[in-house]
């Protein structure tokens, strides 16, 4: 045969154990056996394997050849199928359907210091899916996954996604607040080097997969409030660890490492468990130990994803078998299988990829010279041998080890993904300290016929989801950067408010997939996006592998078909009618052509304008134009559709909600408004006119000039009379038992005695206020009484609002004391709290009393020394401890002063003095200084102070006062001054 050249092939055959078999290429050859010969395609593989298919058997007539000779046999003590059945029978409890429950640990979520609760409102659910959503909520509740609650400070909205089989999946969108508030759970995921060390040298392998891994772990009581979801049926709390919580991967990894510790050759990577051994007996022993640990801890496995007795295993971009570790050829397969460019656009995409990696290969500029000539201006397209050689050389360089790096979880991870009209491409790379990037792995695939009809935004989103799924083992549980060149995706996948509620359902489902990953999405211009752009464009656009077709049929085509079927069944027309009408509608026909073949670069006019602005959300399914998950109704069918939507005569708002669940066309909302406004039955049963805006009460000129009164309750068997001053907002609340007119007037009289008579009283039409006795009371006190109109409590809004505030305060304060204490505490707090509606935001007490009331909060303020009030210009004496004094004696029939001695100073003006054996407390004004005689003397000396005090004479100026100098200039005439003659006091004389 010589050495024929091989042709490129896109087929990916699998072996019996499920592993991919690498193909070098294919060739067409003529085969002869006995007297039969034919021409067939032969696929070439580097493995020592010769295999004939059934088509060759038929052509060569080999069915009659005896095939009882064994060419090569691998001896195994147990067949894989029988071995698996025995294991499942031995550990039947962990392979049963249903949800397991970890019996050894409960997960705990910790908040960052200062984190504040985030409560998100519920998202609208289409009416058509409400019964199915209720069924799913009931199922989760029966399984113990969620529990209904009446109150929670935290709440996250839910995302409801319909699967291809018609069932729903409900997940919480914790990206709306909880994830940002959670403290990071510091437990590292397995380092690749450690896993490689364990896997190297292994000859036999096994892989186990946990079913709904996170939901098998309970959450402790304190953390369940954080996991509250807000639904149309109210609040539910998760009892299990849900998907989408930021700390869930590290929590689960720590749990699995704890459970499997001590078993050699075993490693858990999140919900996957890898087992490696040198012999089959050793593998059986380790597998049995792992299954026993799983059973003891209450977990359950997914049997369809568990593999036993493997001879090779793929992990993190490498293949491990008895020969050791080798790179997975799929890492660069997308580069090697790039077809030769056939036009300028394809070549430009490839040159963008070359420019992206040019920093690592300086000589790349010389190699690309022939290709640069084709990109020059005014050049003619001609693909020469030099161009082909340069193209092959550049592909070889890009796919070589020179531009690839090993995966390192400690380095920044970047994932870039892009989509073209017929393919998606992705690359995962590391960013080095000098800001350069090196690829770890490339991936690409072609789009199925159904996917090619997606809108461009859906194709770009599909590329991101394809990239994250393909690189799942590298990305899950780690933070990474996701790059896209389609800016609208930043609002859908990168919004901190969560998944947009009105995104197309397909985009919502993909956004839900990405909720489980910790990433930051960024926009990058297409010119700087060569690493992914080329992978999506330079791809065999006419071939699709079986694997891709299966994935597409499960995740996209069936999903869109499911929504199309649901939508058209709800309409009065059949799917076939919509298809026929769409082909005959010129606008929809032209739009479907644009969706399939590409939109023009300039904006369209007329009826196409609205559809052009929504082009990113349009797609074609079964010859019907879809706007998200809604059918675009042709113009000829719109009157019938509107009539169907109006069955039961819903109002404008409800009719719009129904219509938006199934159909779309330009100006649909306006058509609904016109239909309802022209419906005679709807107009006859319409609601009352719009309410007139409330007219505010005039502002009172002074406190207690207008008061608003009402009754609150009964609350716990007690009815309260509520009085609010319109000027100061000062409230008065009095229990009234029974709430009669007589009791009401009694309490009002007491209030008027304290605060004065008001000018106006505003009340509702309660019997107590409408009675003749109450009217006579107001007339006698010259008080104007105003009553609110019947069934219009807003007119007495001042009292009505306060009644509501008071009732809620009683509910909040339940159990904090007696009803009287609760009432007084509320009144005191309300009266002393600043009010936004009052001038300068003062409190009601400040407005009514003109001062701030002292509260317990004043105890927190530092004390300031008040200024001393000088009541006299005379300097008062100060007495030290031990100083002899005269103390005032108030006992009957005693001298007014008695000798004493200072024992202790008790304050600025208070002293403790010792009188004989007793101790008295005296003010400084009640003490006199006592001079002790230095020598005995018969002369009786009476203190001057005593004399002055006894005879009511003026005080004698002190020496210091005599020394004062008047510095003022003299402005009066001088006069003669004589020496003062002082009176000599003789105690014996009574008169002078």
UniProtKB/TrEMBL annotation:
User: Gene3D superfamilies from the entry?
Assistant: 1.10.340.70, 3.30.70.270, HIV Type 1 Reverse Transcriptase, subunit A, domain 1, Ribonuclease H-like superfamily/Ribonuclease H
Q: Name one Pfam family in it.
A: rve
Q: Where is the Integrase catalytic domain?
A: 699-852
Entry GO MF terms: catalytic activity; nucleic acid binding
Query: Which one GO biological process term can you cite for this protein?
Result: DNA integration
This protein's record includes keyword NADP: no
Going by the UniProt record, its keywords in alphabetical order are: Multifunctional enzyme
Going by the entry's taxonomy, the superkingdom of the source organism is recorded as Eukaryota
Question: CDD domains, per this entry?
Answer: RNase_HI_RT_Ty3 (cd09274), RT_LTR (cd01647)
- Every Reverse transcriptase domain range: 142-320
The identity of this protein, by name, is Reverse transcriptase
- Species assigned in the record: Schistosoma rodhaini
